[in-house]
Amino acid sequence: MSTATTTLVTPARTVTVGLSRVGYEIRSYFRQGDSVFFTFLFPLVMLTIFSVAFSNASFGKDAAGHSVSAAAYYLPGMLAAGVLLSGLQNMATDIAMEKSDGTLKRLAGTPLSVISYFIGKIGQVLVTGLLQAALLLVVARVLFGVALPTDPAHWVTFAWVFLLGVATCALLGIALSSVPRSGKSATAVIIPIVLVLQFISGVYITFSGLPSWLQNFASVFPLKWLAQGMRSVFLPSTFQAAEAGGSWNLVGVAIVLGIWFVAGLIVTRLTFRWIRKDS
Amino acid sequence: MTESVVEVSDLRKNYHGVEALRGLDFDIRRGETFALLGPNGAGKSTTIEILEGYRDRTSGEVRVLGVDPQRGGLDWKARLGIVLQSGGEQGNQTVREQLRHFAGFYPNPRDVEEVIASVGLEAKASTRIRRLSGGQRRRVDVALGIIGRPELLFLDEPTTGFDPEARRQFWLLINQLKSEGTTILLTTHYLDEAAQLSDRAGIVTDGLLVELGPIDTIGGAQARIPIVRWTRDGVVREERTERPGEFVARLVLEGEPDRLEVIRPSLEDIYLELVGAADAAAELATSTEGASK
Predict the structure, then answer these.
(1) Which residues of A touch B80 (CB under 8 A)?
(2) What is the average per-residue pLDDT within A244-270?
(3) Are B248 and B260 in contact (CB under 8 A)?
(4) Which carries the bigger pLDDT value, residue A34 or residue B5?
(5) Are B44 and B178 within one domain?
(6) In chain B, what residues touch A278 (CB-CB under 8 Å)?
(7) How many CA within 13 A on the CB side of residue B74?
(8) Which of A154, A176, A178 is nearest to A222 (CA)?
(9) pLDDT at residue B198, rounded to an integer
(10) Same domain (yes/no): B137, B227
(11) pLDDT above 70 (res A107)
(12) What is the DSSP string of B224-284?
């Protein structure tokens, strides 16, 4: 009667079910009004505000002597912030909520594997993060006339910084989801962390203008490196001089993001449970 | 024929030094519907959650479909259907989307449209779950519990919030599942429902199984003796007798009695008597304990 079910746990099936969850998760995401605003559209709103508020200011000059506009100057920071919001903030609050509202308990009683569940989550972050980045780039180009890089090398850098950033932030979000005691307190716990990181990591405030002790502190966290990687793609090479050590330091970007990726993976592996038994 | 799907022996569970379960023993046979009854806080949900693998026991032996629930893997879960007490999920999917998605977790699921029809939600199939009423959401829970064609179905207070028509329809569904051979473990506060659906029942009070047996003999023969009740000279009188017809015939010889009733104790009456007796015993135990200090 039950012998046919031993084929359930195969890698192919885990992936198929995981992919079906990607669509399911994306549908849920876009049907949730507050997540669309606070994680998806937020960087776009900030980019618009900065671009309009400082529309007459110049943020420096490129090698040919052209002035860099506010939109061009803030675009890399907003792309980095988008990765952080779509990855870390979204995952941390979403999973904390699912823990407390019974979603995970229901899933725990079905033959869904944890791996399929994570494929769904990370797939959702990847797709919404890509759409968000595309929207930011299109608005920056069309509405604010930002010149985007034309050579493939810059876009290759963008691709790996973006992918590594998304994966790292998603994992850190999953790891952080076990911190809030309830779904309701999740946003209160997570949003301050995310906000402070954005202020000290060169998203809203020029990083080189911060006191050096704060720069050193911020350098421990991934967002500073993510923003730096994005600046290397979208800002003229003349801006490199303003960076620490006078270089984009892409190797440093890869190493720090890589370390946080592995840390997120280990913490997730050790702490994630469908439910807290005996709570 | 007597293969046990659930085997429980000397099941105990302590929470922070409090004994929630104090040694339960029962079996559920294949194809049987078994009701676990008892007041709130008696240990019903703790028991069912241990069987589902959600909680770890303190001691005792448990086998569900031949597997220790603390070690149940995905293949084991694929053979179960679980309807928990209601949660507060977001409900951003429509009824059909949710069922189609969950059907994909199982190796041999039921047809989605058939399941929607069997819980009476055809008209709401394209509605997001968050927009449904409490009773309708509960029917979605039941639908999700049976979508995977389970061998063993856990129903923890499944009909909470149902209107009478929905409850009748639910009973039809359960009878259909029974006829297909599904084994069912049910907890409910509606004793008419337990009497209607289950073959056997266990009554839990204060972490102990105080009664266990076929639904039509539970409480013993004594508890089922009919009661004749009538009023004479403004006083309500009662007589328990195995031969109520004969008794009434004799009564009538003295003149037509006022407000004559012959009452056959329902499961609810028997249950209340058993639970009441257990409560009284517990109270007596605590008061003597207090007195001896």
Answers:
(1) 109
(2) 92
(3) yes
(4) B5
(5) yes
(6) 15, 55-56
(7) 18
(8) A176
(9) 93
(10) no
(11) yes
(12) G--EEEEEETTEEEEEE-S-HHHHHHHHHHT-PPEEEEEEPPPHHHHHHHHHHHHHHHHHH
